[in-house]
Structure formats: C-alpha cells, structure tokens
Amino acid sequence: MQLGLVGLGRMGFNMRERVRAAGHEVVGYDRNPDLRDADSLADLVSKLSAPRAVWVMVPAGEPTRQTIAELGDLLDEGDIVIDGGNSRFSDDTQNSAALAEKKIAYLDCGVSGGVWGKDNGYGLMVGGDAKDVERVMPVFDALRPDGPREEGFAHAGPVGAGHYAKMIHNGIEYGLMQAYAEGFELLEAAKIIENVPAVVKAWQRGTVVRSWLLDLLVRALDSDPELDDLRGYVDDSGEGRWTVEEAINLAVPAPVIAAALFARFRSRQDDSPAMRAVASLRNQFGGHAVHSAGPSSGAGSTQG
Which family does it belong to (predicted)? Predict the structure, then answer.
C-alpha cells in the first residue's frame, strides 16, 4: 500500500520506517528538509496515486487543523485523511465534516508506543467508518505489534472514538506513573531500605505490579540510582486534563487520575523524588524533555 505521512518527528519518523519495513511505500513530508521525501504538502499529494491515504502526525490543535484544511484543498474525492496525533476528540467531528463536504474520508487514530514503537509496534485505537478502517488496514497491521490484531488494534467506534480512547489511555497512564513514583519516594524515605533500585528491579518478575512502565523505571534507575540528575518538574500534554474534564461531564469518579494530574501541577512548584520518577518515566517511554538539576537548568519541552 502507498501512504503519505505528514510530520516526521519523534514518532512520525519511526512510524515511516516501520511501515516501510513491512513492504509499503511511504512518502513523508516534514518542515525539516533532511527528513522529508516531498518538498511540500502539494508535492506529497502529487507523488501519491489515487485513491490516496495521508496520515497526519503533527502537534495537536491549530497545527493539525491547518494541515487537515490544507490537505482538504489538495486531495480529491475518494481520498482519505488519518489524524494520528493527540488531537482532542471534539476536533474530529469538525475535521471530518469539513472533509466530507469534498467527499474525502476521515479517520482518527490514537497511537501509543512512544519512541519504542518502531521496534515493538504501536497500540492503535481508531475511530471512523468501518469501510474506511478496512481500507487502511494494511497500514494499521504494519504499525501494530506482532501477534493477534485485537491485542494491539481496536476499531473503537465512529469518528472521534479513537482519540477519545487514547485520551482515557493517557489518563490511566498518569495514574500508573504516579503510583510507581510515590512508591519510589516512600522507599527513598525509609531508612530501613538500603538499596532502592534493587527493590524496584525485583518487582519486574512474578509480582502483580510488573509492567513495561516498571521496566522503564528500572532502566532510569540503572543510569541514575537516585534520579537526582534531573528536577522533579513534570509537564502535561493536555490529555490528562481532558480526561478529568470528561469525568466531570459524565459524573464518573476518577480520583486517581485527577490526583495524578494535580501532582504534575504541584511539581512545577516544588521538587520531590516522586515527581523526578514521573519525569524520568516520561523521558524513557516518550523521549520527552526533562529539566536537569542545577541552577542553570532550562525549561524542557511541553509537548507530550
């Protein structure tokens, strides 16, 4: 299958390589001339054969909306656009409606896997019409992890469902990370514990708290046993906020996710071992910037 891919950043670049490795042709566009295969969106569209499929991986919000609007002017009836970024699910209805006027199909896809997805595959949650999902399935199969499709891919529902599912996924992620981080701080504070990294590493096999996130915390502790090379300053991408907003809208109690979000806000006012652990986890799975310890430390990226 042939695919256009807009945005070759931390995830987009690796996604292009994984899809190509599966035997598909990918034409990528990015503002960085060293990464791109096309010089503009118009050039990208011209290099694709109809009916075209174009996957958008740019920052959520106005950059995504502008990119999709421009693609709407360049693509033809029967083409399809997939938004694989972290857009708010409410944006999908507007994007889909605008493209539908030109008879261009639209899918939204929540993508999880971070900087490790190239080798491990990406968890995919898709929203849109079933026939459009099936049309792009070769690309989804190339991106998802090896094994049964249903263990790494879900057609979650109509347009918006994919990003909604990813939003909740990220809210859960906030809570899991915070629990590991608070446990780390308790171990650090307990005088009876002499080797915190060894205890955390021992949880990797046989325990009920083992997980990939735990493995990444062990990885971070291997290189920095007390995590004191960075500040406990933790950014948030917005999806945790949206999850809490939805919990309020639906009157669903979500105290763990809400507390984890507020802990990130607090991290910008103090510096604790727990929030250093959360910061290190975000860096491990997503390549997100961290704030180094020391008086000269600068602000890190607020994306992700």
Answer: Belongs to the 6-phosphogluconate dehydrogenase family.
CA distance 180 to 173: 11
Tell me the backbone φ, ψ of residue 299, rounded to 5 degrees: -75, 140
Please say which residue of 159, 184, 203 terminates a domain: 159
Domain total of the chain: 2
Sign of CA dihedral 246, 250, 255, 256: negative
Q: What is the pTM of this model?
A: 0.88
Side-by-side strand order, sheet with 2-6: 25-29, 2-6, 53-56, 80-83, 105-112, 123-127, 153-157
By annotation, the residues acting in catalysis are 166, 173
Q: What are the pLDDT digits (tens) for 29-55?
A: 999 999 999 999 999 999 999 999 999
Domain match, 100 and 202 both = no
The CATH number covering residue 214 comes to: 1.10.1040.10
Rounded Cα distance between 101 and 191, Å, is 66
Residue 303 lies in a domain: no
* CA-based end-to-end distance of the chain: 30
Question: What's the pLDDT tens digit per position in 90-137?
Answer: 999 999 999 999 999 999 999 999 889 999 999 999 999 999 999 999
Report residue 221 as tokens.
Answer: 């502790």
**CATH value at residue 25:** 3.40.50.720
C-alpha distances in Å from residue 36, one per residue of 24, 57, 60, 291: 17, 13, 20, 30
